[in-house]
# Entry
Amino acid sequence: MYCVIMAGGTGTRFWPRSRAAKSKQFLTIQGKRSLIQETVSRISSYASGEHLYIVSQRSQRDELLKHVGSVPEKNFIFEPEGKNTAPCLGLTALHIQKRNAEAIMIVLPADHLIGNKQKFKKTIFAGVQVAREHDSLVTIGITPDRPATGYGYIQRNTRLAEISKVSAYTVKTFAEKPDLETARRFLESGDFFWNSGMFIFKVSTFLKAVEEYLPELYDALMDIRKVIGKPEYETVLKNVYRQIKNISIDYGVMEKAANVMMVEGDFEWNDLGSWEQVYLLSRKDKDGNAINGRAVCIDTVNSYVDNDSEIIALVGCEDLIVVKEGGVTLICKRDRAEDVKKAVETIRKKKYSDFL
Amino acid sequence: MYCVIMAGGTGTRFWPRSRAAKSKQFLTIQGKRSLIQETVSRISSYASGEHLYIVSQRSQRDELLKHVGSVPEKNFIFEPEGKNTAPCLGLTALHIQKRNAEAIMIVLPADHLIGNKQKFKKTIFAGVQVAREHDSLVTIGITPDRPATGYGYIQRNTRLAEISKVSAYTVKTFAEKPDLETARRFLESGDFFWNSGMFIFKVSTFLKAVEEYLPELYDALMDIRKVIGKPEYETVLKNVYRQIKNISIDYGVMEKAANVMMVEGDFEWNDLGSWEQVYLLSRKDKDGNAINGRAVCIDTVNSYVDNDSEIIALVGCEDLIVVKEGGVTLICKRDRAEDVKKAVETIRKKKYSDFL
# Structure
């Protein structure tokens, strides 16, 4: 049993706090630890040392070592560039397979908030059992508590089992982020769950699915497999990656495979998709303001301030997100937090890349 | 004829651009020159060298020399602390009187924007003639073009003369900043003019008025007069100033004296009372945004950005004033620009005085 923490995100939605060298998993949202530290800590009772892999990009190596330096260095897998989750997990599967052909991989994003550690553990263990017994690709579906439009959904099919009070289902279909009306129908039906991006499967099951549904990627992975542990590894990896298509495990594998199953994750979960999510989760003062760093608010309400420098003064503002990182400041209406990436794109186009 | 430029303001309304060491007169609002440089340039054809005085506080000395270093150093008058305009002009009157007992003083704030230099000059010269002929305290009243609520008003009485197309009047009364309805009545009546804070009088006339209406201040000034040019000057000045009451020339002298007259200033004038004024006077792009420094605006309209650092991104904002100076950032709704001083007060109370 191996946990794989996906820590390669570039996190433009958290710009400017997540500038190039500092992506979302390194942010401290609640408490004192970064999201990736929380993730490592959450699973430490059943996956640590040799059994914990971190997959990321080489550009994030130094920051990763600062945050999760306790992970053995050979368990860091670095991609030469980001090509989305299917190649990332394919590469990781190769490495784990080499160590243990019968291994089960538990795939966890580094940057989610999860409320109940014990329920989470039970869900993981149920997923491991389902993946092992059914040779299936198991995904964790979160019990929705509101008609969220920011997540993809998984529709369950028939009930398969209940393992330590965790329900397991076969999966009927995956649905893209819905509009509000559709999300309401999803919630009422009781058949839809949030797609958490957490997966559990045997390495062998996953690679077989890649062979079937993403044969080009599979061939590329086989080229890499030949050189693992050899001096030419880095060079081959770089060359192969340059040609690999950018594709997600959801789109490339999960939505196509027949042997997909779901375990129900009935715990608090938040993928922290934007500063608005962070605001909603933050502790607020009587005016509804959540302040990190030094700020003075005059007649200002329901705003989020994250300031790394001397002081920010807000006068007569409402519903603002203000984030300052070095010489870069974001000021965003709260209901427009999804559009922070537009600012990042514009800055990229204008070639102000130092500020990303 | 001596011009006195009052350059002692601390300018909290322009915080954080106007932090302690950099008050409003040193800001560049339009063009390339600071407001005080514009003021000196505007009068250079009739008041320069020996005939130009700058009165300020010692803490601003270095910045002043950078901006208006052409003024002879002995024509800089430094107050040990700010006690408003009556003491400031009293002290200056002493110095000028010592050089020339018959002198006429033209008092100009350092930090106003003025449109028509020629009309301005004609107004000044008309004022000088009135002050000389009538031994009066002459104020410049600006012809209002809108029912402004941000200025005090002067109500004219009878017409006295017209000098080079500039009308001169006796003054009926001074009025505080009115509400909108009152301001509309003022505008309709045609009898009310904006109180510009510019004055013209003989040194002797002014000191006589101080003796009559502010006898305590007059006595203090007499103590200072005895030591002008002597080694103990600075020490005496400091001790006397500590006890002087904070009082404006308007409240202490102009509103009480009988021999007050007004010349009509029919030129563009703006006292730049707040960032909102600066926004209104700035060149705007098609979205109504006025940007100084580097900024990226996504769906953002009618906003003012003044950025001294790498970049500010605004997403989905409207009617905002954003000013960044070093590690200090102001974010203010445009219709709340008058309340920037509340932020400054709060910061002062919290003893974050490094940020003022």
Observations:
- The mean pLDDT of chain A is 93.
- Residues 275-355 of chain A form one domain.
